[in-house]
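Practice problem. Given the sequence and the SMILES for 2-oxoglutaric acid, write out the predicted structure.
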Amino acid sequence: MPTTRQLLSSAQVARFVAQGFLRLDGIVPRELNEEAFGVFAAGLPPVPYGTAVPKAFPEGSFARRLVELPSVAGALESLVGPDPTVDHHFVHTREPHEGSAQPLHADALIDLRTDAFDVQLMYYPQEVTADMGGTLIVPGSHLRRINESDTGRYQNLRGQTRLTCPAGTVLLLHHGIWHGGRRNDSDTVRHMYKIRFNPTVPQVRLWDTTDLQDPAVREELGRTFPWYEPATGRLEIHNRIRLWRVLSGDPDFDIEYWATRISNRPAQRSHA
Ligand SMILES: O=C(O)CCC(=O)C(=O)O
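Answer key:
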C-alpha cells in the first residue's frame, strides 16, 4: 500500500458502520477506466485465496494501480488495515437486455464474526445509467444476519438503492451487505470488478481518529433506514454499537444506554 493514502475520518467510518458501504464517485482516472475494458476482456489472472496484495497484484498491474489510488488505498487501510489479503476477485457483467435480475443476496456464506469484517471493493469503469443494471444495495442491511441467498425472495425493500454513477466510481462495502445485479435493459454491457479483502490486523482505530468525539459520529451511528421495522430496527443500532465498540477500542461506547443496560448482570449478593 502506498504512503500517499488518504485515510477516512471517524464520521466516514461511522457512516460505513451504519449504512454498510461508502461511495467514492468518479475517483478513478479516465485512462485507467479506458484500460479496464481490455484488461477485463483478456481475463484476470487467478488469485489463490488469502494472497497478500503485492503478490496477488504485481507492481504495475491494473489491479495494483487501482488499489493504490490514494483515496482507494486510504479508505481500504482505514477499514481493513494495512497489508490485507485478497480473498478473491471477479468481473461481474450484466449483459444487454438479459431479461432478469440477480436475486438479492450477501456474499458471505455463514459468517458469525461480530468483531471483524471483510471489505468488498466494487469498481465501475463506465458510467452506469438507470437502465444498465446497476448494483442494487439495501443500506443498513449488512449487520442483519442472513446466509448468502436467504433474501433471494425479496423483490424490493423500501430505501433500496440501484446504483447509477459516473465512470470510475468505487464502492467499498461490508461483506454482509444485501445486494444484487439488476436487470440490464440497455444496449450496453455493464462491468463491475469486485475484489474482496480480508483483514490481517485487528480492525481497531485504523482511520484518522482526530474527529472521534465529533457529534457527527453519533449522528451517523444513529441513522435509521426506511425498511427497518420499529423494533428490529433498534436491533441494528445495537449491532452498530457493538461493532463501534470494537473498532473504536472503546468498550463503553453507547447510544441511549442501550448496550450498557442489557449487559448489566449484577453478581449474586452474599447474604450474611
Ligand atoms: O453485478 C452486480 O452488480 C453484483 C454482482 C455481485 O456482487 C455478486 O454476484 O455477488
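Check your answer against the key. The CA atoms of residues 256 and 264 lie 15 Å apart.
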